[in-house]
Amino acid sequence: MHGDSAVPTRSRFRPRDLFSEAVLSLLAHSGRSALTAAGIVLGCAAFVATMGISATLSRQVSASFDIARATQVVVHQPADEARKSGAATVGSPVPLWQRPTAVDRLRRLNGVDSAGPRMTLPERTLARTLSTGGSDTQAKIVGVDAGALAVIEPHLIRGRYFDRFHDRTAAPVVLLPANLARVLNIDRVGVAIFVDDRPYTVIGVFDDVTRETATMGSVVMPFSTAQLLVAGSATVPPERAVLIEVRPGAAHPIGNQAPLALLPEASGQLESIAPPDPLTLRRAVEENVTMLVLVVSFIALGVGTFSIATAATAGVTARAAEIGLRRAIGARPRHIFVQLLTETTLLGTVGGIVGSALGIVAVVAVALSNGWEPILDVRTAALAAAGGVVTGLIAGLLPGWRATRVQPVAALRQ
Amino acid sequence: MTAVLSLRQAGRSYDDGHVVRALRPTDLTIERGDYITVTGPSGSGKSTLLNLIGLLDRPDVGTCHILGRDASSFSEAERGALRGEMFGFVFQAFHLVPGRSAVENVELGMLYGRHPARRRRALAREAIIRVRLAHRADSDPRTMSGGERQRVALARAVAGDPVVLFCDEPTGNLDGANTENVLELLRQLHGEGMTLVVVTHDSKVAAQGTRRLRVDDGVVREGA
């Protein structure tokens, strides 16, 4: 056998040998391997978590969005139009578009559930007793008729709503939000409070509202009762609006028709604020999410590539003797290159899978702790894992090339 | 009959700020079955000579021929095959891979060669038995003595049955008994027809050779 005189043809590196050499090599430096893959694990976890949590959130957003916001339209008069029409003067009467005849025209539109005028007065002094001073407080006054009250839909914890009777007679009654009631030491209905030294009877206390959350800090009274306050000592004109609750899907047509119904002779003076079209909104949310995810995944890919490439390049120096030995026992430069590439790709793959799993755990944990329905797309996790593979592959190019420059003579040096 | 290896006016110098002539242009022919020992002081160019004829390095003047063919005409694939299958190397520092058993280290020597994994395992077992380390076949080299490691390195070099075996200071770190063991193995291999090139400091080892080379300041002389 020693007499075999033919020159051997080619050295080779079988795929199975390549795979087992790469795995053995990674396991031999398991600590270094784990640290190297950490960047990919974090990147993929961040990617899956971002995608999952934003998908979960957007489902949540559109769910709550559909209930209240999508069924509300507000009509008001822009400030410059109000000045022109003279409605902005102090002590002005109720403008035509807030009067019962106008609002009745609006209520007849198909798709309107309830509607009514609202005025918001600047802050007034509230007191439990007449002119004691000290314990008094300030709050805005909201005047609404029964229709507008139905739109706001305060959640009562005590007492009752006012109705058409109170509005028609300008009865001195108020609804108080719970926080104001607490400040004024009111724990039952039927007691009196003073607003600008006029007495009012508290007939209800509410702790939440379905729409118009700004109402939470204000004293709510019948529209005609509030109008009497305007005629009094007001120095700033009230903000006026008509609140409309519409059936789901009707917000847009009603938003277009409401100014015409309220003020047919000059509908241009009014402006209606309808909620954004749910479809547009959802698309916008999704676009935002997609952008965010793109940014996150590029950062993740960059960090992962950098950490693997850095560690593997440093590893080439540390492994010079091993690489030299491999060259001396027959490895071609390309065998060395392929082995390093396989090692970083394996690291990237394992990192991608572990990271995706962690991301899924994070999404489920966040969703469950908030009582949401977790939305997980299998494709997201698969994409993240694939990203890990690609990252590992790219990260191996530079150290792989560096390794091919290690000469076999290196194995002979100590 | 064609010489296994020959150098024709082959030399090597390194540019390390100033030019160091590690090996002056040398003519050397190695025939099949030679047992060549190379002696000389440290830094004289022994290792450079070994690297050139073992295809671990390339001459910058002259040519190196393998079985009559100019080595610079070989592709990387052929050079790899020559190193892996026709040559065997025993390095001074052993270069065993920690974390792999003795027999796995021996298998590694044939990794890039023509044998499939199962055959490599069988050949590695034979080689381990041959160097009388069967009892340590599954031990990690880190737990082995210097003599045992040297024998694993020797088993790795010869398991694939190379034509030429290169040894760099094979007894450099060994005591008398272990040195005698290694020399006995080298004599056996030579007896079976293997060509040996052994670099050594030890005159006792050098005396074993059928041809003795001495390198001084990059110049190779024969028969010293």
Topology of helices and strands:
The complex is a heterodimer of chains A (414) and B (224).
Chain A: H1 15-28, H2 30-67, E1 72-76, H3 79-85, H4 100-107, E2 112-127, E3 137-144, H5 146-152, E4 154-159, H6 164-168, E5 173-177, H7 178-183, E6 192-195, E7 198-209, E8 218-222, H8 223-231, E9 239-246, H9 251-262, E10 271-273, H10 278-318, H11 320-328, H12 333-370, H13 378-404
Parallel strand pairs in A: 3-8, 5-7
Antiparallel strand pairs in A: 1-9, 1-10, 2-3, 2-6, 2-9, 4-7, 6-7
Chain B: E1 5-16, E2 18-30, E3 35-39, H1 46-53, E4 61-66, E5 69-70, H2 76-86, E6 87-90, H3 102-108, H4 117-130, H5 146-158, E7 164-168, H6 176-191, E8 195-199, H7 203-206, E9 211-216, E10 219-222
Parallel strand pairs in B: 3-8, 3-9, 6-7, 7-8
Antiparallel strand pairs in B: 1-2, 1-4, 4-5, 9-10
Helix pairs in contact in B: 3-4, 3-5, 4-5
Index terms:
heterodimer; A: 414 residues; alpha+beta; 53% helix; elongated; B: 224 residues; alpha/beta; Rossmann fold; 6-stranded mixed β-sheet; 4-stranded antiparallel β-sheet; 7 helices; 28% strand; globular
Quick recap of the structure?
The complex is a heterodimer of chains A (414) and B (224). By secondary structure, chain A is an alpha+beta fold. Chain A has 13 helices and ten strands.
Detailed description of the structure:
The complex is a heterodimer of chains A (about 425) and B (about 220). Chain A is α+β, with helices and mostly antiparallel strands and about 425 residues long. Chain A folds into 2 domains: about 15-65 and about 280-410, no CATH class; about 80-270, no CATH class. Chain A is about 55% helix and about 15% strand. The model of chain A is unreliable at about 1-5 (pLDDT under 50). Chain B is an alpha/beta fold and about 220 residues long. Chain B has a single domain (about 5-215), classed as Rossmann fold. Chain B is globular, with a radius of gyration of 17 Å. The model of chain B has no long low-confidence stretch (mean pLDDT about 90). The chains are: A alpha+beta (about 425), B alpha/beta (about 220). The interface of A and B includes residues 21, 27, 407 and 411 of A.
